[in-house]
Every structure is written in C-alpha cells, then in structure tokens.
Amino acid sequence: MTATQSDKNTDQLQPERYFAPVPDETEAYDLPVTGTLPTELAGRYFRNGPNPLPGDPSGHWFTGIGMLHGVRIAGGKAEWYRNRWVKTARLAGERFMDENGRRNLAVNSANTHIIEHGGKLLALCEVGFPYQVTPELDTVGPVDFGGRLTTAMTAHPKQDPVTGELHFFGYGFRPPFLTYHRLSASGELVHSAEIDVPASTMMHDFAITENYVIWLDLPLVFDHTLLERGMPYEWRDAYGARLGVMRKDSTKVQWFDVDPCYILHVVTRSRTPRAGSWWTLSATADDRGTRFGARSVVRSKSETTSSTRRRRWASARCTAGRSTLPAGPSASSSSTIVASNSPLSTKAGPACPTGTSTP
Ligand SMILES: [Fe+2]
C-alpha cells in the first residue's frame, strides 16, 4: 500500500467527514437518475445504520440511534427517497433497566439491519426487541410477537428458503445467555429454546444449514464493570473459542474447540477475499453426520500493514477435528464464514448497516 493510499484510507475513517451523521429527516420526489433504471425493477430499497442525533455524541459507532433510508423505484423512475430515525424507547429517553432492575428490551438503537418477514418490516439491533416500521419508514413500535419473545433478537436472522421460517437467536447479559428462536413463515414465534453456554459473549451472527444451526461462542466476553467505558466487552483468551453444531429440532450442541478468533459475520456462500477488507473462514457441516471442519483464516495480500488486532485475527487458525454429529438426513450442505477486519472497513459504512428490498 502506498503512503498516498494509506493517507486516503485513514482520511475516510474520520467520522466527522465521510461518515458524519445525517442531521435531519427529509424526503424528496422524482429523483434525478444517472443512466437508466430498468423498467422491470420495481420496489423499495431500505438500509439501516447508526446515526447519532445532532449534538449527541454516541461515544461509539455501534450505539447511535438507527436511521432508515429508503428509495422507491418503479417504471424506470426513482419515485422518492426518505430517511427516518427509528423512534425507539431509547430515543424517547427511557432507561435500559427498569426500576426493578430488569432489562427493558424496547430500549435499544434498532440500528443494525432491516428485514421483511411475515408482512412486517423490522429494524433490528442485537441487544433488544425488533421495531416494526411502515413501508414509508414511520415507526410502529417494538415487537415481541404477542409476548412470546422474552430475549433480544439478533440483527442477522436467517430465512430458510424452503420452509420460509426465520431462524434467529437472542443473547442476554444475564442467564439465559443464549436462546434459539424460530418464526413461522407467517411471522408467528413458534419455537424458543435455551442453549447452554458459559457466559454472555458478543454473538453477532450464526449460520444455518438445511438441518443444523452453527453457533459461534467466541472470546469477546460481556463484563458489566466495563459499562462506564462505553462498550462492555473484553477479549479473553481464557474463555476459549468454540463452534457448535446443533440440529434444528434439538437443543443438544456438539462443540468444537478452535483457536481464539472472532467472527463477525457469516454468509452461506463462498466469497472472494477483498484486499484490505475481508478474511475468509470456511466451515463445512456434513448433514450426514460425519465431519465438521473449519479452515484457517485467509488474509488478503495487502494486509501487511494491519493493526495488531488484524494480525491476531489473520493469524488465528480455526481448525476442528473430525467428529461425529448427531445423525441426520443425508443432504449435505456447506457454509462460508466471512470475517471482516472491522465493521467500519466495508463500503456499507459503520456498524454493518445493511439493507433489504421489498415491493
Ligand atoms: Fe452485522
């Protein structure tokens, strides 16, 4: 990497510049289009990301209130754009814990993802309830699926392409530290099961295959004594690192110790490492129950000037030995786990803001 490129990259990470918060809500109609929009392309594109209120420094890029952006495209036109903060209980000033010391799960930033499931648009943040919003991005309110959801909801649920069910989990700062959930295709919470893990860790993502769930129990451990510094997590080698495989219809997990590493995101397909942005950790789960393996982390060529943490991640080897999984149907499946060196490093922007599209 040349000095010029390095300077440019450093410059782009200055939040007061390219990643400065949007100061207000706005909307615009009949937007100018550069080039041509295919007339077959019709729908709405939404994205979400942390966006602190003006004059309210959040202290961390992960903690700003979620702001939704949307564009409506139809008939070769960009009909409108609008942006709205998610009007969460946190934005209203409610407290994280209630007067009885219980977690108020409606108090969160709803700032990480937006999905559509069961006819609902949901803004997600992994430390609380999802927030339903309208197709025009007005906030409806927190969703607990008729009182059945009693934990937070990950921002990265997985939809089963065959059944239409939505698989997700919630992690807690107190027991139960991890709970697995499943929504029906119509959006009813039909299954919840506690999963036994030693402590509360930042479990940002997970994976599913046709028949299995893969858990990432990694050494970024929650510690309430760190709350004053903003982000109450600490890397602890002593915690160890494990990948767990569980049949979807069971709560029995087979754990595989791996060398300490952290995996932020999982995808279920291969992806070419990008220079300066991605490492790839491949995991293969054979549903016939014969093996589970995770290849070593791959570092992209241009990462020779990386930080210590990057080197730690890059040098981590996550190798699980051969073992026998609970017997299952014969279909094989595989997933590829992609870990970013930093959530700020992708072109998507801070705190892995992600988008969804809907008619
Ligand atoms: Fe994410």
What would you note in describing this structure?
It is built from 2 helices and 22 strands. It has 359 residues and is mainly β. The chain has a domain at 195-359. Strands 1-4-3-2-22 form a 5-stranded antiparallel β-sheet, with no helix packed on it. Strands 5-6-7-8 form a 4-stranded antiparallel β-sheet, with no helix packed on it. The N and C termini lie far apart (42 Å). The model is unreliable at 1-13 and 269-353 (pLDDT under 50). Fe (ii) ion (FE2) is lined by residues 112, 155-156, 204, 265, 352. Fe (ii) ion binds next to loops.
Helix-strand layout with pairing:
Elements: H1 3-12, E1 26-31, E2 43-50, E3 66-74, E4 77-85, E5 113-117, E6 120-124, E7 131-133, E8 139-142, E9 158-159, E10 166-171, E11 178-183, E12 189-194, E13 207-208, E14 212-217, E15 220-222, E16 233-235, E17 241-247, E18 253-258, E19 278-285, E20 292-294, H2 308-315, E21 333-340, E22 355-358
Antiparallel strand pairs: 1-4, 2-3, 2-22, 3-4, 5-6, 6-7, 7-8, 9-10, 10-11, 11-12, 13-14, 14-17, 15-16, 17-18, 19-20, 19-21
The structure holds fe (ii) ion (FE2).
Keywords:
359 residues; five-stranded antiparallel beta sheet; four-stranded antiparallel beta sheet; 2 helices; disordered N terminus; binds fe (ii) ion
Structure, briefly:
With 359 residues, the protein is mostly beta strands. Helix content is 5%, strand content 33%. The chain has a domain at 195-359.
